[in-house]
Amino acid sequence: MLKEERHQAILSQVELHNRVLLTDIAEKLDVSIDTARRDVKELDQENKLRKVHGGAISLGFTTSSTRNTNIYALPQKITIAEKAATLLKNDAVIFIDGGTTCMEFARIIPLHLKLTCFTMSLPVAMELTTKPKVDVIFIGGKISKESQIAIGANATHALSEIKVDYGFIGTGYVDASDGLTDFDWDVVQVKKAIMKASKKTILLCISKKLNSRHRYKTCDMTAVDTMITELSPDDDQLKLFRNNNVHLI
Amino acid sequence: MLKEERHQAILSQVELHNRVLLTDIAEKLDVSIDTARRDVKELDQENKLRKVHGGAISLGFTTSSTRNTNIYALPQKITIAEKAATLLKNDAVIFIDGGTTCMEFARIIPLHLKLTCFTMSLPVAMELTTKPKVDVIFIGGKISKESQIAIGANATHALSEIKVDYGFIGTGYVDASDGLTDFDWDVVQVKKAIMKASKKTILLCISKKLNSRHRYKTCDMTAVDTMITELSPDDDQLKLFRNNNVHLI
DNA sequence: TATTATAATGCAATTTACTGCAATTAAAAC
DNA sequence: GTTTTAATTGCAGTAAATTGCATTATAATA
């Protein structure tokens, strides 16, 4: 393997996970630790990453105030994810839906927290594998290419056999009177099943989606126990939601 | 062979694989290393590629878009993946195991190919969502953090209910007499289930793993229908495998 | 503090690069 | 067709780069 290829491989790993261990480089690229260290050292000198004890981290990781340099992660979603994370307690059993907001939530879960997480979102599951104390269980099924979640009879059936404390879900569209709606029928079916499997349903939703609706209905607002948005609780837009016994954060 | 022809051959190689080794050029084009080096040097000066120690890489290789498609792929694994891909036909129903070699295989599947793919590897499933004509079905279960595949009773049970034409599997260790072995018991159980669900088992395995073994056994070599490595079929190491009715590519 | 893990350094073995040169080949000139 | 000329190629010797290992130093962690 050419040195240049190794360098690219290391950079891609850093780009993807924001960090990389020297031992991982050595093993996966089939070189000695020394070579891995030298590679990282050179990349550091070229200002492509930052070398730290035991590995390397991406340049933006430490400096930028916004946590992860995911271009899709809007700051509001991080705010929501941070609020949602405050609900988590050790040994909780939760479900995490797909979508970028839930993805942000998964990303923000503290490393020391012991959890059991169900999900049928591929990216969320991938992210959760980086959390040492989180048990991850994936609900299988046919994979929807757009949303990268498992759908179909298999998925809904598997969901019918579990019960979790909290179901953290997202939605495509939400409205105080029309409830949660989506444009994909299969996705709606799965979301229904998630809510049935959850003792409490927590909706993560950026304010942009408030007051919008689409073809297929997941549920009424009354079925949602808690809704988390980035707006302050006394925002005008939220008044309508208070009538549905929805707890707002 | 004319110099210009060589230059074209080198460029097409670089275009295809993003890289080329001087030793490969020398061997395949039947010239000395020196000539190969001189050719690459000229192409570099013409800005057709970038010369690096030991070979050359394509100019676009460093852009992050191509980088993401080349995470941690050893060149040998690409060779194996390419060979494996030749077995695929339209409308085939296959299973793809986890591991970097199988990942490379998933990556190389042509976009025009219509397939149904089962997998219980998160990265493989993610990759497959980029193939428009491939139906992806994920076998759910508890996710193993090291290997990022679904394991456990759920996974093996789900596997017991399907039947695929080809099962493309990897293994941690392989030996002609001891067969396929691994260090993780759960993983071995899943691999067994995969083989049971496959009409034909195709083992993708880099030569480095040949003649190695570990604690838990998946199966004997006789259970493998085809083994694909990057070695030439008359390599000495492979002689031992011929005795097991294993088809080598 | 003790213990472990990681880093830095020097060194030897290997691989690759460069240089000059002679032999060969292809093209040009006669 | 023959000779001349220039380009190309392979080889040998040397220089440089790369790599892995051993050793010592340093940093992290309990």
Automatic annotation (TrEMBL), chains A, B:
SUPFAM superfamilies assigned to the protein according to its UniProt record, in alphabetical order: NagB/RpiA/CoA transferase-like, Winged helix' DNA-binding domain
Residue ranges that the Swiss-Prot or TrEMBL entry lists as coiled coil: none
SMART domains listed in its UniProt record: DeoRC, HTH_DEOR
Stored PROSITE patterns: HTH_DEOR_1, HTH_DEOR_2
Keyword Transcription regulation: yes
Keywords: DNA-binding, Transcription, Transcription regulation
Domain HTH deoR-type: 3-58
Molecular functions per Gene Ontology: DNA binding; DNA-binding transcription factor activity
Presence of keyword Transcription: yes
InterPro entries given in the database record: Carb_Metab_HTH_regulators (IPR050313), DeoR-like_C (IPR014036), DeoR_HTH (IPR001034), NagB/RpiA_transferase-like (IPR037171), Tscrpt_reg_HTH_DeoR_CS (IPR018356), WH_DNA-bd_sf (IPR036390)
Name by which UniProt lists this protein: DeoR family transcriptional regulator
Native source species: Maribacter luteus
